[in-house]
Specification:
It contains 7 helices and 17 strands. The chain is an alpha/beta fold and 342 residues long. It has 3 domains: 128 residues, Rossmann fold (3-Layer(aba) Sandwich), CATH 3.40.50.620; 59 residues, Adenine nucleotide alpha hydrolases-like domains (SH3 type barrels); 76 residues, Translation factors (Elongation Factor Tu (Ef-tu), domain 3, Beta Barrel). Strands 12-15-14-13-16-17 form a 6-stranded antiparallel β-barrel. Strands 3-2-1-4-7 form a 5-stranded parallel beta sheet, with helices on both faces.
Length: 342
């Protein structure tokens, strides 16, 4: 490309650090920014400083803790308190992370922003399409579905065609100290991933209530609705003599409803907060594939627009769609967009 200045979102991990190397090899002028989102990110900032130093590039440190708290942490807590299952990365990406990256690129005079996501960008007919990365085991396109053309047109994903083991091999070959650094945990602002304890320590406990059996009668006491998610089978602390799953969480009555596996399936879902990756990517009556959680596989469906929401009808019933999780629509490898399961 003619424009050669690229700002890398650097965490000091192996993925973003190898992005720096690949872009420098390709002839770009590379700088980096690390976003400090919370007190738990102090180590991230230090790791990013080390990586930038090792590769001889300038680094900007940007404190985003205030908008992160407002837009992401408060959402995360309130969703669990409402009996829903949040995904903080999906909300953070458009509202905080990529907004900050593009704003910083503009302030510092960079043409593009690069991240270590395993996803692909296809530029065609003045549009930038978001697509699955070649390494489907690592694909992160689901997490990026709320990005639109403003963000996608400015992005580069240098790892789009690489498997993780190849990325680690490159890091080792060029002597990066992060070559064997473990992958980051799921919830970046909760280092031990114990989200229920985090919520209780900072925002108070949610009181115990009744588990309701598949037959519709109380069958035990739960320890607070924030400890459970729809589809959960393990660590329920009750024994009915057969496997049961969390079917629904009702924050009003403080009840957790259980079901047998055969009743954990749904034929359709209603989706709100619609986001499209390019104009009119989602139309009434289209055939598509949908992913209803980050680690799920895509399944065929039909999509209907109902006012400001979507009705997604599965070709075959799907197990335990969870309120608050995202339903992301695909046309083959291309991400069309999606929304939050209601």
């Amino acid at each position: 490309m003619e424009k050669k200045k690229v700002l890398v979102a650097l965490s000091g991990g192996v993925d973003s650090s190898v992005c720096v190397h690949l872009l420098k090899q390709a002839g770009y002028e590379v700088g980096a920014v690390v976003l400090k989102m919370s007190p738990a990110h102090e180590g991230t900032v230090e790791d990013a400083r080390r990586s930038a130093e090792e590769q001889g590039i300038p680094l900007v440190v940007k404190d985003m803790s205030e908008p992160f708290q407002k837009e992401v942490v408060s959402y995360f807590v309130s969703e669990y308190q409402r009996g829903r299952t949040p995904n903080p990365c999906i909300v953070c990406n458009p509202l905080v992370k990529f907004k900050a990256l593009i704003d910083t690129a503009d302030e510092e005079g960079y043409d593009f922003v690069a991240t270590g996501h395993y996803a692909k960008l296809i530029r065609k007919d003045s549009l930038t399409y978001l697509a699955k990365g070649d390494s489907l085991a690592r694909d992160q396109s689901y997490m990026l579905y709320r990005l639109g053309q403003r963000e996608l047109s400015r992005l580069l994903f240098p790892l789009a065609e690489l498997p993780k083991d190849e990325v680690r091999k490159i890091a080792a070959q060029i002597g990066l100290s992060c070559a064997q650094k473990p992958d980051s945990q799921e919830i970046c602002f909760i280092p031990d991933n114990d989200y229920a304890r985090y919520i209780e320590e900072k925002y108070g406990t949610s009181g115990p209530g009744d588990f309701i059996s598949p037959e519709g009668v109380p069958c035990g006491r739960h320890k607070g609705i924030i400890h459970y998610t729809v589809g959960q089978r393990k660590r329920l602390g009750i024994a009915l003599g057969r496997p049961v799953f969390v079917k629904e969480i009702d924050p009003v009555t403080n009840r957790v409803y259980l079901s047998d596996e055969k009743d954990a399936y749904e034929n359709e879902i209603l989706v709100s907060g619609i986001s499209m990756t390019y104009p009119e990517s989602i139309r009434d009556g289209i055939r598509a594939e949908v992913k209803i959680r980050s680690r799920a596989t895509t399944v065929p469906c039909e999509v209907f627009i109902e006012g400001e929401k979507l009705k997604v009808v599965f070709d075959e019933p799907q197990k335990a769609p969870a309120k608050g999780q995202s339903a992301v629509l695909y046309d083959g490898a291309i991400v069309l967009g999606g929304g939050f399961i209601e």
